[in-house]
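Quick check before the chapter quiz. The format below is the same one you will see on the exam, so make sure you can read both the input and the output lines.
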Amino acid sequence: MKYAVFLVFFFLIMQSVHAQESLSRDISYEYLDKLVATCKTNYPKNKIFDTRISIAEYGIKKAKLSYFDIFSAGYLYSPNSSNGTAGAASFLGGYQLGFFANIGSLLQKPSVIKQAKGELATAEFEKLTNDLNVEAEVKKRYFTYLQKIAVLRLKNEALLDVLSMLASVKHKFEKGEETLENYNEVLMMQSAHSQNIIIAESEVLIAKSSLEELLGQKLENIK
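Here is the expected output.
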């Protein structure tokens, strides 16, 4: 029992030494900027907001061009009449051209254009909000990925310490200088560390896959 307590105390010290390694040494903000740019380019949801802006811009152009719809031209044919004065018959008879303006539509156009501009501004704000959310999410998943890698590295270093101790205890056990109980305790510790490494490796892969989901491609393809 005392030996087990000693082992736990020893590895707490080793873990503390390893933990002094800072995560910041793994962070590359230049690479992170590339990841954010890649996400904004490839992630399908981002393209929805670009499409909305294009539609809103087209809506403004359409609203401005619709001013021409207010005006229309037409003609009226009046056959010459033999009744009345000759001057009146000459003036009113035949084809008569005319231009017409829809005053109601004319008054509505400014509000229609204002509405179209408002829709464009809304689409642009939505895209800006999405860009900020995307950037924050990429950073979050990138830092999580690095964190999982750092944890795996610590567990690998701890396993090396366990294997070193196991080799020493095994050698002493074979020489009759160590008990079977202590030897089994180190063996169980080695087994537990090996299982922890498997879990840590899976967490690294999951974090990597989560980040690549946003990027639309493998991390290895982003240099």
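If your answer matched, good. DSSP finds six helices and two strands in the chain.
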